[in-house]
Design goal:
The chain starts with 7 loop residues before the first helix and ends with a strand. It has a single domain, classed as TIM Barrel, CATH 3.20.20. The strands form 2 sheets. The protein has a 5-stranded parallel β-sheet with strand order 1-2-3-4-5. It contains 5 helices and 7 strands. With 202 residues, the chain is α/β, with parallel strands linked by helices. Helix 2 packs parallel to helix 3. Helices cover 29% and strands 14% of the residues. Helix 5 links the parallel strand 4 and strand 5.
Length: 202
């Protein structure tokens, strides 16, 4: 049985079944209330965790944050909120981490994120983090600060395209490795913007 503050590496165990629900963020307060009722109804099936995504560019970020906190405080299902680099400063990310830590949320899914669809040519120069790997490092520094009630801090998950070594020119050692400290439960490590030398995309 899972508890709301468990790390994802404790939730996902080899040889044991795991299932979860993923929810797109609500677009307004009414939709948020309806979605919460759906999540509460689904909790009777005892999912291992639920994840809540971000809108493109974090456009629904506050509704996402509010929903994640409500799940944590009113259900027995661990929420795994998505957190993205796009349209965020380091201070904004830290404020979100502090809010999540204050209610004992145990995990974060760190992503680069997509620019807003209605903003072609979006300028990311104001973003503090270019890639998910940068966001992971920031979350790890937050963990090391001791601000999370769990001494281990947040469990950090990532999602990425896979890579494999080229059979002709490369050895596994020439391909990038996951950043130190990334949860083994989510072995796919942060996205790489272009194919690394001598590696081909899966």
């Amino acid at each position: 049985m899972t508890t709301p503050g468990m790390h994802i590496s404790d939730i996902i165990k080899p040889g044991e079944p795991t299932f979860s629900f993923e929810f797109f963020p609500p677009k307004n307060a009414e939709a948020a209330a309806a979605l919460y009722e759906t999540i509460r109804d689904l909790s009777r099936y005892r999912p291992s965790f639920v994840s809540v995504t971000y809108g493109a560019g974090g456009s629904t970020r506050e509704l996402t944050h509010d929903l994640v906190v409500k799940i944590r405080e009113t259900t027995h299902t661990p929420p795994v909120p998505h957190l993205t680099c796009v349209c965020h400063t380091a201070d904004e990310i830290t404020a979100t981490l502090e809010r999540y830590a204050s209610v004992g949320i145990g995990n974060i899914l760190a992503l680069r994120g997509d620019p807003p669809a209605d903003m072609p040519g979006f300028d990311r120069s104001g973003d503090s983090f270019r890639h998910a790997a940068d966001l992971v490092r920031h979350i790890r520094r937050f963990n090391e600060s001791g601000k999370h009630p769990d001494p281990k801090g947040f469990g950090i998950g990532v999602a990425a395209a896979g890579w494999r070594a080229s059979t002709s020119r490369s050895s596994p050692e020439s391909c990038p490795s996951p950043p130190s400290g990334v949860s083994a439960a989510w072995p796919n490590w942060p996205e790489v913007p272009t194919s690394p030398p001598n590696c081909s995309r899966l």
